[in-house]
Protein backbone atom coordinates (compact mmCIF):
# COMPACT_ATOMS: atom_id res chain seq x y z
CA UNK A 1 0.00 0.00 0.00
CA UNK A 2 1.38 3.41 -0.94
CA UNK A 3 2.41 6.01 1.65
CA UNK A 4 -0.05 8.44 0.06
CA UNK A 5 -2.90 6.03 0.63
CA UNK A 6 -1.90 5.30 4.22
CA UNK A 7 -1.73 8.95 5.19
CA UNK A 8 -4.90 9.86 3.29
CA UNK A 9 -7.01 7.23 4.98
CA UNK A 10 -5.64 7.97 8.42
CA UNK A 11 -6.54 11.62 7.83
CA UNK A 12 -10.01 10.52 6.68
CA UNK A 13 -10.64 9.06 10.12
CA UNK A 14 -10.45 5.32 9.35
CA UNK A 15 -14.23 5.02 8.91
CA UNK A 16 -15.77 1.56 8.83
CA UNK A 17 -15.07 1.20 5.09
CA UNK A 18 -11.30 1.65 5.61
CA UNK A 19 -10.47 -2.05 5.31
CA UNK A 20 -12.58 -2.46 2.18
CA UNK A 21 -11.10 0.64 0.52
CA UNK A 22 -7.62 -0.63 1.26
CA UNK A 23 -8.43 -4.04 -0.15
CA UNK A 24 -10.01 -2.64 -3.32
CA UNK A 25 -7.10 -0.30 -4.01
CA UNK A 26 -4.51 -3.02 -3.50
CA UNK A 27 -6.24 -5.28 -6.01
CA UNK A 28 -6.78 -2.54 -8.60
CA UNK A 29 -3.22 -1.24 -8.28
CA UNK A 30 -1.69 -4.71 -8.59
CA UNK A 31 -2.11 -4.70 -12.37
CA UNK A 32 -0.07 -2.70 -14.89
CA UNK A 33 -2.81 -0.34 -16.07
CA UNK A 34 -3.81 1.88 -13.12
CA UNK A 35 -1.98 5.18 -12.59
CA UNK A 36 -4.17 7.01 -10.04
CA UNK A 37 -7.06 6.27 -7.72
CA UNK A 38 -9.16 8.97 -6.07
CA UNK A 39 -11.66 8.45 -3.26
CA UNK A 40 -14.73 10.55 -4.06
CA UNK A 41 -17.71 11.86 -2.16
CA UNK A 42 -18.24 12.34 1.61
CA UNK A 43 -15.83 9.51 2.48
CA UNK A 44 -13.00 11.67 1.11
CA UNK A 45 -13.69 14.10 3.97
CA UNK A 46 -13.85 11.39 6.60
CA UNK A 47 -17.59 10.76 6.75
CA UNK A 48 -17.74 7.91 9.30
CA UNK A 49 -20.73 6.26 7.61
CA UNK A 50 -20.75 6.95 3.87
CA UNK A 51 -24.45 6.98 2.95
CA UNK A 52 -23.74 6.31 -0.70
CA UNK A 53 -21.09 3.68 -0.11
CA UNK A 54 -17.64 3.97 -1.65
CA UNK A 55 -16.90 5.78 -4.90
CA UNK A 56 -13.49 5.41 -6.53
CA UNK A 57 -12.28 7.19 -9.66
CA UNK A 58 -9.70 4.91 -11.27
CA UNK A 59 -7.38 6.44 -13.85
CA UNK A 60 -5.96 4.00 -16.39
CA UNK A 61 -3.20 4.54 -18.95
CA UNK A 62 -5.11 5.86 -21.93
CA UNK A 63 -4.51 2.93 -24.28
CA UNK A 64 -5.63 0.40 -21.67
CA UNK A 65 -8.98 1.75 -20.48
CA UNK A 66 -10.84 -0.97 -22.39
CA UNK A 67 -8.44 -3.60 -21.05
CA UNK A 68 -9.22 -2.76 -17.42
CA UNK A 69 -12.93 -2.53 -18.12
CA UNK A 70 -12.83 -6.02 -19.60
CA UNK A 71 -11.30 -7.59 -16.47
CA UNK A 72 -13.02 -5.41 -13.86
CA UNK A 73 -16.03 -7.69 -13.34
CA UNK A 74 -14.00 -10.89 -12.87
CA UNK A 75 -11.62 -9.08 -10.52
CA UNK A 76 -14.32 -7.64 -8.27
CA UNK A 77 -16.41 -10.83 -8.30
CA UNK A 78 -13.53 -13.23 -7.65
CA UNK A 79 -11.02 -11.27 -5.58
CA UNK A 80 -13.32 -8.89 -3.70
CA UNK A 81 -16.37 -11.12 -3.30
CA UNK A 82 -19.02 -9.00 -5.00
CA UNK A 83 -22.48 -10.50 -4.57
CA UNK A 84 -23.58 -9.56 -8.11
CA UNK A 85 -21.90 -8.67 -11.40
CA UNK A 86 -21.34 -4.96 -11.86
CA UNK A 87 -24.26 -2.70 -12.73
CA UNK A 88 -23.05 -0.56 -15.62
CA UNK A 89 -24.71 2.73 -14.82
CA UNK A 90 -25.84 4.06 -18.19
CA UNK A 91 -27.25 7.20 -16.56
CA UNK A 92 -23.71 8.57 -16.32
CA UNK A 93 -23.59 11.63 -18.57
CA UNK A 94 -19.81 11.61 -19.07
CA UNK A 95 -17.78 9.51 -21.46
CA UNK A 96 -16.23 7.65 -18.52
CA UNK A 97 -17.60 4.23 -17.62
CA UNK A 98 -19.04 3.46 -14.21
CA UNK A 99 -19.89 0.16 -12.58
CA UNK A 100 -21.61 -0.39 -9.23
CA UNK A 101 -20.99 -3.49 -7.13
CA UNK A 102 -22.48 -4.83 -3.90
CA UNK A 103 -19.64 -6.08 -1.70
CA UNK A 104 -20.51 -8.34 1.22
CA UNK A 105 -18.58 -7.88 4.43
CA UNK A 106 -19.82 -9.25 7.73
CA UNK A 107 -23.60 -9.07 7.64
CA UNK A 108 -23.90 -6.00 5.41
CA UNK A 109 -23.61 -5.02 1.76
CA UNK A 110 -21.57 -1.98 0.77
CA UNK A 111 -22.07 -0.28 -2.58
CA UNK A 112 -18.82 0.18 -4.46
CA UNK A 113 -18.92 2.50 -7.47
CA UNK A 114 -15.89 2.40 -9.75
CA UNK A 115 -15.51 5.08 -12.38
CA UNK A 116 -12.88 4.31 -15.01
CA UNK A 117 -11.20 7.22 -16.80
CA UNK A 118 -8.04 7.70 -18.88
CA UNK A 119 -4.92 8.93 -17.13
CA UNK A 120 -4.98 12.04 -19.30
CA UNK A 121 -8.12 13.08 -17.39
CA UNK A 122 -6.96 12.03 -13.91
CA UNK A 123 -7.93 14.63 -11.33
CA UNK A 124 -10.54 16.27 -13.55
CA UNK A 125 -13.63 16.40 -11.35
CA UNK A 126 -16.55 18.78 -10.87
CA UNK A 127 -15.52 21.59 -8.47
CA UNK A 128 -18.13 20.59 -5.87
CA UNK A 129 -17.09 16.92 -5.67
CA UNK A 130 -14.92 16.09 -2.63
CA UNK A 131 -11.96 13.94 -3.68
CA UNK A 132 -8.79 12.56 -2.11
CA UNK A 133 -5.88 10.96 -3.92
CA UNK A 134 -5.22 7.56 -2.34
CA UNK A 135 -2.96 5.95 -4.96
CA UNK A 136 -0.42 7.39 -7.37
CA UNK A 137 1.16 10.81 -7.61
CA UNK A 138 -0.66 14.09 -7.95
CA UNK A 139 -1.85 14.65 -11.56
CA UNK A 140 -0.12 17.32 -13.58
CA UNK A 141 -0.77 20.79 -12.22
CA UNK A 142 -1.28 22.36 -15.65
CA UNK A 143 -4.73 20.84 -16.07
CA UNK A 144 -7.55 23.39 -15.79
CA UNK A 145 -8.85 23.61 -12.24
CA UNK A 146 -12.45 23.75 -13.42
CA UNK A 147 -12.18 20.60 -15.53
CA UNK A 148 -15.26 18.42 -15.49
CA UNK A 149 -15.94 14.87 -16.69
CA UNK A 150 -15.83 14.65 -20.46
CA UNK A 151 -19.26 14.58 -22.09
CA UNK A 152 -19.83 11.82 -24.58
CA UNK A 153 -18.68 13.10 -27.95
CA UNK A 154 -21.28 13.52 -30.72
CA UNK A 155 -20.99 10.68 -33.19
CA UNK A 156 -19.17 8.41 -30.75
CA UNK A 157 -20.25 4.79 -30.63
CA UNK A 158 -23.43 4.46 -28.55
CA UNK A 159 -23.23 2.36 -25.42
CA UNK A 160 -24.65 -1.09 -26.03
CA UNK A 161 -28.25 -1.75 -25.02
CA UNK A 162 -28.52 -3.52 -21.68
CA UNK A 163 -29.26 -7.24 -21.69
CA UNK A 164 -31.97 -8.82 -19.54
CA UNK A 165 -29.31 -10.02 -17.08
CA UNK A 166 -27.82 -6.53 -16.84
CA UNK A 167 -31.24 -5.01 -16.24
CA UNK A 168 -31.91 -7.49 -13.43
CA UNK A 169 -28.57 -6.61 -11.79
CA UNK A 170 -29.45 -2.91 -12.14
CA UNK A 171 -32.83 -3.55 -10.53
CA UNK A 172 -31.29 -5.40 -7.57
CA UNK A 173 -28.65 -2.72 -6.97
CA UNK A 174 -31.27 0.03 -7.09
CA UNK A 175 -33.59 -1.86 -4.74
CA UNK A 176 -30.78 -2.22 -2.21
CA UNK A 177 -30.06 1.50 -2.54
CA UNK A 178 -33.75 2.39 -2.12
CA UNK A 179 -33.99 0.24 1.00
CA UNK A 180 -30.83 1.72 2.49
CA UNK A 181 -31.93 5.29 1.86
CA UNK A 182 -35.39 4.69 3.28
CA UNK A 183 -33.84 3.25 6.45
CA UNK A 184 -31.84 6.48 6.79
CA UNK A 185 -34.96 8.61 6.41
CA UNK A 186 -34.11 9.75 2.86
CA UNK A 187 -37.61 8.95 1.62
CA UNK A 188 -37.64 11.28 -1.38
CA UNK A 189 -34.37 9.87 -2.69
CA UNK A 190 -35.65 6.35 -1.99
CA UNK A 191 -38.77 7.18 -4.00
CA UNK A 192 -36.54 8.18 -6.93
CA UNK A 193 -34.65 4.90 -6.67
CA UNK A 194 -37.93 2.96 -6.70
CA UNK A 195 -38.96 4.80 -9.85
CA UNK A 196 -35.73 3.55 -11.43
CA UNK A 197 -36.41 0.00 -10.16
CA UNK A 198 -39.78 0.03 -11.91
CA UNK A 199 -38.25 1.44 -15.09
CA UNK A 200 -35.58 -1.28 -15.13
CA UNK A 201 -38.26 -3.95 -14.73
CA UNK A 202 -40.37 -2.34 -17.48
CA UNK A 203 -37.37 -2.34 -19.84
CA UNK A 204 -36.55 -5.96 -18.98
CA UNK A 205 -40.13 -7.03 -19.75
CA UNK A 206 -40.22 -5.10 -23.02
CA UNK A 207 -36.83 -6.47 -24.10
CA UNK A 208 -37.68 -10.08 -23.20
CA UNK A 209 -41.08 -10.01 -24.90
CA UNK A 210 -39.82 -8.20 -27.98
CA UNK A 211 -42.02 -5.17 -27.36
CA UNK A 212 -40.98 -1.62 -28.20
CA UNK A 213 -41.40 1.05 -25.53
CA UNK A 214 -40.99 4.49 -27.17
CA UNK A 215 -38.03 6.32 -25.70
CA UNK A 216 -37.87 4.00 -22.70
CA UNK A 217 -41.07 5.55 -21.35
CA UNK A 218 -44.30 4.16 -19.93
CA UNK A 219 -46.28 5.44 -22.91
CA UNK A 220 -47.99 2.58 -24.69
CA UNK A 221 -46.88 -0.10 -22.23
CA UNK A 222 -50.45 -1.14 -21.31
CA UNK A 223 -51.30 -1.86 -24.93
CA UNK A 224 -47.94 -3.48 -25.64
CA UNK A 225 -48.46 -6.01 -22.83
CA UNK A 226 -52.08 -6.80 -23.63
CA UNK A 227 -51.53 -9.25 -26.49
CA UNK A 228 -50.35 -12.40 -24.69
CA UNK A 229 -51.01 -14.31 -21.48
CA UNK A 230 -47.50 -13.61 -20.23
CA UNK A 231 -47.75 -9.94 -21.17
CA UNK A 232 -51.00 -9.51 -19.27
CA UNK A 233 -49.55 -11.27 -16.22
CA UNK A 234 -46.56 -8.91 -16.31
CA UNK A 235 -48.88 -5.93 -16.66
CA UNK A 236 -50.73 -6.95 -13.48
CA UNK A 237 -47.48 -7.26 -11.56
CA UNK A 238 -46.21 -3.90 -12.85
CA UNK A 239 -49.46 -2.22 -11.85
CA UNK A 240 -49.10 -3.62 -8.33
CA UNK A 241 -45.49 -2.48 -8.19
CA UNK A 242 -46.14 1.12 -9.21
CA UNK A 243 -48.80 1.47 -6.51
CA UNK A 244 -46.34 0.85 -3.64
CA UNK A 245 -44.26 3.54 -1.93
CA UNK A 246 -40.91 2.63 -0.33
CA UNK A 247 -40.89 2.43 3.46
CA UNK A 248 -37.63 0.55 3.87
CA UNK A 249 -39.39 -2.08 5.97
CA UNK A 250 -38.00 -5.58 5.30
CA UNK A 251 -41.46 -7.00 4.57
CA UNK A 252 -42.08 -4.41 1.87
CA UNK A 253 -38.64 -4.79 0.29
CA UNK A 254 -39.19 -8.55 0.30
CA UNK A 255 -42.57 -8.14 -1.43
CA UNK A 256 -41.11 -5.81 -4.07
CA UNK A 257 -38.22 -8.19 -4.76
CA UNK A 258 -40.57 -11.15 -5.10
CA UNK A 259 -42.80 -9.22 -7.50
CA UNK A 260 -39.81 -8.36 -9.66
CA UNK A 261 -38.49 -11.92 -9.67
CA UNK A 262 -41.91 -13.34 -10.58
CA UNK A 263 -41.95 -11.06 -13.60
CA UNK A 264 -38.43 -12.09 -14.58
CA UNK A 265 -39.44 -15.74 -14.17
CA UNK A 266 -42.28 -15.15 -16.62
CA UNK A 267 -40.24 -13.30 -19.22
CA UNK A 268 -36.59 -14.37 -18.88
CA UNK A 269 -36.33 -17.57 -16.80
CA UNK A 270 -32.85 -18.26 -18.17
CA UNK A 271 -31.63 -15.11 -16.43
CA UNK A 272 -32.86 -16.36 -13.05
CA UNK A 273 -31.08 -19.65 -13.68
CA UNK A 274 -27.89 -17.81 -14.64
CA UNK A 275 -27.93 -15.60 -11.53
CA UNK A 276 -29.61 -17.98 -9.06
CA UNK A 277 -26.58 -18.30 -6.78
CA UNK A 278 -25.97 -14.55 -6.69
CA UNK A 279 -29.65 -13.83 -5.99
CA UNK A 280 -29.58 -16.30 -3.09
CA UNK A 281 -26.60 -14.44 -1.60
CA UNK A 282 -28.36 -11.11 -2.14
CA UNK A 283 -31.42 -12.43 -0.28
CA UNK A 284 -29.32 -13.62 2.65
CA UNK A 285 -27.65 -10.24 3.10
CA UNK A 286 -31.01 -8.47 2.99
CA UNK A 287 -32.55 -11.17 5.21
CA UNK A 288 -35.24 -11.89 2.61
CA UNK A 289 -36.53 -15.48 2.47
CA UNK A 290 -37.11 -17.14 -0.89
CA UNK A 291 -40.62 -17.05 -2.32
CA UNK A 292 -41.61 -20.32 -3.97
CA UNK A 293 -43.70 -18.39 -6.47
CA UNK A 294 -40.50 -17.08 -8.04
CA UNK A 295 -39.30 -20.62 -8.63
CA UNK A 296 -42.27 -22.08 -10.51
CA UNK A 297 -41.95 -22.67 -14.22
CA UNK A 298 -42.98 -19.87 -16.52
CA UNK A 299 -46.14 -20.39 -18.59
CA UNK A 300 -45.46 -22.05 -21.92
CA UNK A 301 -46.36 -20.24 -25.08
CA UNK A 302 -47.52 -16.69 -25.49
CA UNK A 303 -51.05 -17.28 -26.68
CA UNK A 304 -53.97 -15.17 -25.65
From TrEMBL:
Stretch list, region Disordered: 140-160
Domain of life: Bacteria
Protein name per UniProt: Uncharacterized protein
Native source species: Mangrovihabitans endophyticus
